[in-house]
Every structure is written in C-alpha cells, then in structure tokens.
Specification:
This protein has 303 residues and is of the alpha+beta class. It is 13% helix and 24% strand.
C-alpha cells in the first residue's frame, strides 16, 4: 500500500544555497563567544550572510547503522496528565494506537554516515564542523526533503528496496519495502516511551530534564555526541535531549478514535518533528526547513 504526499515548499529566503528556510522560530546564536537571544529582527540581519554550505569530505568505505527491534503493541498516544503544558493542545486528545513490529535506529544518523551516503555535509548558521570524532556526532541542518533522499540512497547502498518514490514534489511511501525510511510519528513516540518495556517516564528513559543531555551547544561542539547519556528501556539513545528528529507524517490535530499503524494525513503543510522535548510533545516544520537542531533517526519495517 502506498501513501501519496504533496508537500509544499514555503520559501522564506534564498542566499547562495540550494536550501531555503521555511519557518521562523526564536534561536540562541553565538556571537564571538557571547550567547544572546535572537529575535525576528536579528534573524533578518543574519540571513543576509551565507548560512549554508556543502562541505566535501572523504567518506568512509563501510556503512553501518545499528538498529533496535521494537515489538509491536498498543499504547496511549498523546499527552498524559502531568506532562508538558507548552504543547498540550497539539498533543490532545490521548488515544489508543496499535503498531506492528519494526526496527528503529539505536542512535541518530551521524556525520560520518551522512557523508558516506550523500558525499557532503549540511552545515547550518556558521557552526564549525568538528575536527574529529565525527563518527559519534549527530548530523544537523537536515531538511525533510534531504532526509527522504538519504533514506533512499542508503537503501541503494545496502541493496534494499527503496521505501520512497520521489516524483517532482510528490513523495510516495511503500510501507512493504525493506529499505530505510523515517519513522511515523506513532512509531517515534512508541519507541521513545520504551515500547512494551515502558516505565512511563516523562522523557525517553528519564523523568527529570536534568538527566537529559543538552543539545544546544556552541562552536565545534554544536554537533551533539550520540550515546552520551544512558539509553531508554529499549536500549535506544538520545530520543530526548538529542536532535529534533524528522518524522514522516504531516501535522494534524489528533483524533480521539483508536488507530492501527497511523501514518498521518495524506496532505498537509508541515511535517512532524520529535525529540529534544518530553515524549508526548509535538512540533512541526516545513519540508525545506533546515533547523539548527534538525537531524534524523531511521526505521525499517519488519517483514
């Protein structure tokens, strides 16, 4: 079965780059070592400077992406009383979801893995690439569009059937393919909660935000190290406290009805972004947005 999407690229600006920013948030920028809060007006000043570059680096000859098996089951998806208030409306109502088994990345996609597949690294907003340890650093500045292309190229390299068919601005997903794909929002939340081994933590494996690694770092250390904190109940790392991770789904408000293997609406404007926040919190961005903390984690269907 295939699902057809017709994403719209909302372009905010172009600046010597093949990528465009499509959404405005409030950021923290580093200015000569001094951290300051960046408002919309400051952002308008910053976009007059080059912000994205393609960096060509020697790629490792081997490809390895470690995955964790997630046994299917049912769970209550959405906001639970006592959890985050900031995104409470988007995470309501809580509803029952049943998922089939699947595999999900033990870690987020790293710089080394990305460059081995794509041949270049997206670098965002002037942050310097780390000089070493890139096999343990999560790639950032990734758009949803490029995440889709990455999945297909990695599938090709490993001799797997592509999950995605790209035709112009339309993306089709073959859910029966054995290749790599982005998680659905439900798959992401179920894995973050610990699946059948869940202990009902607020964060992925933790209850206190102090226990979660901070992903906002400056300079060369902007690229967070994967696996810096203990894993959750399933042995998965950094689902909160790491990157904002792209999901397949278009954003839509939840339904109160029970669902089986939900994949989100067939059309929309924004794609879901998860991570960096409590397990139930939802956020979204345009498919062409290259946020400072936007990365990815991969999934494969179990067949």
């Amino acid at each position: 079965m295939e699902t057809m999407l017709s994403p719209e690229s909302w372009l905010f600006y172009t600046n010597n780059s093949e990528y465009c920013c499509g959404f405005i948030q409030t950021y923290n920028f580093s200015d000569k070592g001094k951290k300051h809060q960046n408002t919309f007006e400051k952002f308008r000043e910053d976009i007059n400077k080059p912000t994205i570059q393609k960096v060509l680096l020697a790629a490792p000859s081997n490809i390895a992406y470690e995955m964790v098996f997630v046994e299917g089951g049912s769970f209550i998806m959405g906001r639970i009383p006592g959890q985050s208030e900031e995104y409470r409306n988007a995470a309501n109502p809580a509803h029952k979801v049943t998922l089939s088994s699947y595999y999900i990345g033990k870690y987020e996609v790293t710089i080394d893995l990305w460059k081995s597949v794509m041949g270049s690294i997206p670098t965002c907003l002037g942050h310097e690439l780390p000089k070493k340890g890139t096999s343990k650093k999560a790639v950032t500045g990734v758009t949803w569009d490029d995440a889709i292309k990455f999945c297909n190229k990695l599938s090709d390299k490993e001799g797997l059937k592509r999950a995605y068919k790209i035709s112009g601005d339309q993306v089709t997903c073959d859910w029966n393919a054995n290749g790599y794909r982005l998680p659905t929002e439900a798959e992401w939340e179920y894995a973050a909660r610990g699946g059948k081994k869940s202990k009902n933590f607020k964060y992925s494996g933790y209850n206190s935000p102090e226990d979660v690694a901070k992903s906002e770092q400056e300079g060369p250390e902007y690229y967070p190290q994967i696996g810096a904190q203990p894993p959750n109940e399933l042995g998965i790392y950094d689902m909160t406290g790491g990157m904002d991770e792209w999901c397949w789904d278009f954003f839509a408000l939840y339904s109160s009805f029970d669902q089986v293997n939900p994949k989100g609406p067939s059309v929309g404007i924004w794609h879901i972004v998860r991570g960096h926040r409590p397990n139930t919190d939802r956020f979204y961005d345009f498919n062409a947005y290259f946020g400072m903390c936007h990365g990815l984690r991969l999934v494969r269907s179990k067949k």
